[in-house]
């Protein structure tokens, strides 16, 4: 019987990071990676972004397992959030699982979760309709692997992050023979890394990069601050090696980095002398040319941490005169502006900047010729470029067509697309709803587009608050509008603008009070519209306008009025409530003549039995 196969990206296509792909074979769903991405500038206040898995919630009983390719955040970062909802097993290499456990341990709901399974390139797992196996690849973290799903219709291959490097050391080496064997067995669809697809230049070997780091450490005088991704174990090893050879000590920043380093040490993936690392306190006793500060930032993102150091906002380390900030990571093109701003901040703080990418093509992802080599080894019937923005996916598709792969056999998917293979035919089926889930503090998914839009407006044009007090029964404004502005204009320098705004608010409010069909919502909306139109005319800005309308009741009756008018007994409780609501003025009470006070007391004593009877 022919297998029905669906390939569904939940992230990682037409964007940087957040890799997550689902392969549905005869109703069983296999999850490939579960990553996050760091927010870009327009996502104000957002910490990280993870995939949206509403579809998976509706089909949670069909999920078989999660299979991880490597231990970077773009592959494992969303796992803690995923496992709080889906209690499924997780498979990965020893190093990948160790790093995944560190992430999962941060989630209190998962303190009892322990369904991790360590696999390697020789492992095969038979799930009936599908046999899952793995192959080793070269990346900037040890034990990176690709994943193979063997079905009756052919193999679905997911490369994960990879590149080819003939000088790679054990633990980072690609098994070329295994790649050839997978290709010979027949590949139905190849999901292949596209993050460096538009680069025509060959990647520098890791041996060349290691030599460049050592040369920088050797000839540089003064302190060196190295910016590195915390989970880039290969780069950290190169920094340790260069420091040891040039007589420098290394100080680690942040608990995240320390956890990763100690975990890699336990597994034998990092090696260095015990006296290489020093504490911040020990750093003060060393000369600047004997030190290296390894900065990875929160959650392994170093650029923002370097910005704080340049702005003197870090508690432990800040950029000093004569420091060299050595950027050993390769930020995505989306971060170009941020990196340029960071360089400027460093120079303002008295430091200098050097980046590996200035002199070498140091990417951990396959460039154009590497992608074509992978295609020649795999010989896939269909290609699905993944992991990259649209232009990168398109560059990968063009590289494939140079090898003779027909354009109709290449599918550039978007999130929520469903590529369906059934009865020997493949095509796009009915899509599913997939969006982004934004993490802000402890909030998961409670920040939507409306909130982000409001944040952006507040950041761009500020806020304009107008407070008005009205008496709705008398249909009049009791207190003139009081205006407060933040981030919009300087109030003292724009008195005419504020005065005119107050008149517009008053007019809009009075018009609504005069209207027989008074409505609070309509009143506030009317104020917003009139005020927004005027402010845009005058300033060409659109601040967030918050009208605050307060109502007062000026119809309290005087406490003694009912007695003077001969109030009926049944109205006494109402009169008593009115009297209790208005406290007597002590000064006024003292001015009353004594004989009236005595007469009032007699009147109260005479009326007391009647009041007591009424209350009962």
Automatic annotation (TrEMBL):
Assembly information from the UniProt record: Homodimer, may be a subunit of the RNA degradosome.
EC assignment: 3.1.-.-
Localization in the cell: Cytoplasm
Function field: An RNase that has 5'-3' exonuclease and possibly endonuclease activity. Involved in maturation of rRNA and in some organisms also mRNA maturation and/or decay.
Domain Metallo-beta-lactamase, residue spans: 17-213
Listed HAMAP family: RNase_J_bact (MF_01491)
Chief subcellular location: cytoplasm
Biased composition (Low complexity): 568-590
Requisite cofactors: Zn(2+)
Biased composition (Basic residues): 592-607
Domain of life where this protein originates: Bacteria
Region (Disordered): 554-616
Name of protein: Ribonuclease J
